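Narrative summary of target 7.
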Amino acid sequence: MQHEPQPQPADELDARAVRTWSSLAVAALGRAREDIDAINVYPVADADTGTNLYLTAESADRALAEVLGTPPAGVSETTADASLAEAVRAYAHGALIGARGNSGTILAQLLRGVAEVLGDEPGGRGPGRLLAEALTRAAEEAYRAVAHPVEGTMLTVAAAAARAGEAAGAAAASAADVALAAYDGARAALADTPGQLPELGRAGVVDAGGCGLVAVLGALWQALSGRQPAPEAVRGRAVPVPQPPRPCDAEEGGGPAYEVIYLLEAAEPDVAELRERLDGLGDSLVVVGGDGLWNVHVHVDDPGAAVEAGVVAGRPYRIRITHFGDERRRARGERVQRAVVAVVPGEGLAGLCGEAGATTVLARPGETPDAAALVDAIRRAHAREVVLLPGGADQRAVAAAAAEQARADGVRVAVIPTRSAVQGLAALAVHDPEGSFDEDVVAMTAAAGATRYGELAVAERQSFTSAGICQAGDVLGLIDGDVAVIGSGLDETAQAVLERMLGSGGELVTLVLGPEVPDALAERLEAYVQHGHLAVDTVTYRGGRYCAPLLIGVE
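Modeled conformation, tokenized:
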């Protein structure tokens, strides 16, 4: 169980304050997520705003923890020195790459605006004035990111918080006083949202995204003052409102059928053209980011066209396509047609597969999830048809047992014979929830089977392997489950494994880095692929806690 840090009252804007703010924001959104989900009626009544904000804040917290050398969400001690600029930039970057949904994407841009101000030299400005300017920049950046801003939403709440913060900052208030003024201004603006947006007024609720922003601003005030906001203010109930409608009462609406989100590497002029193209395809368009990396969010009827527009502009990846009909059915407690359940050996991989729409089961080192855990995940997926990705050969028997039990419950289940997490990623990349079940299973099985897999591990003791005798501490390079290389360091062993794997050809290399492995290793492997195999693309992901030092896939 995670424990919240205990903030100490201090008028300091430093890396520790940002770390505390992040941890408290994750905790506040964790408490509020179900209540916020319940009042989510705009722009789409899909009951996920609280969850999207929470997952975005979690991603931001993980990125900040990596910079500060701390475990994510809940531990306040730091083991690495970092400046305020480094902390806020990492915080904003983590939100950008992990932003979920319309609300999460806007939160990422708000944090980017904060980072643009706090990441610069103070220039004689005190902490209170600096924070006030950061909140103003955040609101301005958020409005610019949304193609067609609507009042009565999270944007309105952000603007009100900025105005209140500016007023306090102009009076030479402390950073804690500015945070309190912004928090109070946000709560007052949130109370007015039902009168500004007809959908909210009809449902008798405040804006869900604005409610989440109030929780985040309350966490900021708590981090700077040491005082805790009232419980009702951080549970999605910042103001009294009529009883929110049950998800099944929310209007289906006549808007686009799909939500499309992806990260995009592209130049700014190309992104400007992308905005125009996507604006013609759908609505709820939000494009946030900068410096070559963007997070794109849009609601469309043709998700393929939205992704294709990203391909024209640059390199889209981490593509997530959600059918609103499935989300509404889940919110009403109805089964969706098809879902994917994946066993993954790392928290980062769990997040990655979750972004792709899969329900995940975390496999820790030395542990194999039992059939009961897989059956529980199948039930949580709440689908008539389930594709199960066991993740490793040692988990296939358990997956088969879970599938049999789920079939007895009336669920159609197919187990894809994956032997590595990278094969699961390859299968998930071709998953087509709109096609027939049999065709989907065949395509996913073929993609997994066409992916060679490698892994680096550290030998715990002397032993005999297929590549010879290894000593404790040696780095073992495995290819398709067998030890192929014994080395003394990660770099040379990784390159030797990759060289052998590419010897039989390939079009795409997937690298999944463990939690202790530096980005420099991936950069060197990418450079090796670029120089020696010009037609091969490379993608890199962070496997997170519990992941092996390195996983390699070659398709």
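The CA atoms of residues 28 and 451 lie 41 Å apart.
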